[in-house]
Amino acid sequence: MIVVTTPTGQIGRQVLDHLLDAPDGTTDIRVIARDPERLSLRVREHVEVVRGSHADPAVLEEACEGADRLFWLVPPAPQADSVEGHFQAFTEPLCETIARHGLEHVVSVSTLGRTVAKNAGQISASLAMDEAIMATGVHYRALCPPFLMENLLGQAASIRDAGVFFLSMTEDRVLRTCATRDIAATAARLLLDESWTEQHDVPLVGPDDLSPGGMADVVSEVLNRPVRAQLISSSQYRAAALRHGVSEAWALALADMTDALNEQGFYGADAPSTPESAPTHFREWCEEVLKPAVLG
Ligand SMILES: NC(=O)c1ccc[n+]([C@@H]2O[C@H](COP(=O)([O-])OP(=O)(O)OC[C@H]3O[C@@H](n4cnc5c(N)ncnc54)[C@H](OP(=O)(O)O)[C@@H]3O)[C@@H](O)[C@H]2O)c1
Q1: Integer Cα distance of 175 and 215 in angstroms
Q2: Is the pTM of this model over 0.85?
Q3: Among 34, 37, 186, 252, which one is most buried in terms of CB atoms within 10 A?
Q4: Which residues form the pocket of ligand 1, taking CB atoms under 6 Å from any ligand atom?
C-alpha cells in the first residue's frame, strides 16, 4: 500500500497519475486529502481516500495503517506564523507514525542545499525536516530540486500584460531549475520500487545553465514577444510578499532564503545537472506549460 500526501497539489497530483498509470496496476493506493471533492473522478474511483490534513496525527495514523510506502510533501503555507513551526507540525506526527506503523520507504520533496544552506528560510526548514525523518531510521529518499520552473506560472499575467517576470537575485548568474514533472516521475519510480534501502538525497537538477536573462530570452522566443527578467533584492521580495498577504514570518523567511541563495550559491552553476532524473529543458517546459498558461 502506497500513501500519497498532497494529491491535489501540482507535484502530488502528477505522482498519483504515474502510480495509476503503472503497467502492473496492482499496487493499492491511499491518499490524504482535505477536500476529496478536488480529486478527479479517475482518482476517486481507483484509490482509497482519507479525509483531512497530514499534519493531523489521527489522520496520518489512519492513512498509514497497513501501508509500507509514503509520498511525503509539506505544503507551502504563506500564512504560517512560523516557518520552522509549520514544518515541525507536519514532521513530528510523521516521525511518531513511522515509529508506530510498519512504514518502510518514505519519498519526500525537499531541496538542494544540504550541508551548505545556512539561515535559508524555507530551505533550512525543509532540510531540518529530512534530518528528523532520517533519525527514525526509515528507508528514505529526499528529492532535492533547485528553483521550480512552475514558480513562473504565478507570474503568467505579468509576463502576458507587461512582458516581465521578477526573480529575487542580486546578479544575472546561473539559476538551476527543475520541472515538477521530473520530481513526480522520480517519486513514482521510487515508490514503485521496493528494493532500495538506506537514506540518500536525490538531486533533481535540470539540464539548463541559464541565468534570469537567459531564461527571459527563451521565454521571449517561445512566446514570440519581448519578455525581460527583473531582478529584485530580498527586501523588495519581502515587501512584495507582504503586499500579497503573506505572513511576516513567511515573508522574512523568503528574504532569508534569497540572501542565502545569493551568498551561498547552492542553486547556482556549481550544482551539477542530473539529466537522467531531471531531463526537462526549460525551453520544452516553456513550450508545453508556460505558453498555454500565458496565452491561454
Ligand atoms: N518553489 C520552489 O522553487 C521549490 C524549490 C525546492 C523545493 N520546493 C518544495 O516543493 C514543494 C511544492 O509543492 P507543490 O508545488 O506540489 O505545492 P502546491 O501545488 O501548492 O500543493 C500544495 C498541496 O498541499 C495541500 N495542502 C495545502 N495546505 C495543506 C494543509 N495545511 N494540510 C494538508 N494539505 C495541505 C494542497 O491541497 P488542498 O488545498 O487541496 O487541501 C495541495 O495538495 C514544497 O514542499 C516546497 O518546499 C519548492
Answers
A1: 9
A2: yes
A3: 186
A4: 6, 8-12, 34-35, 38, 53-55, 73-76, 109, 111, 122, 126, 145, 147-148, 151
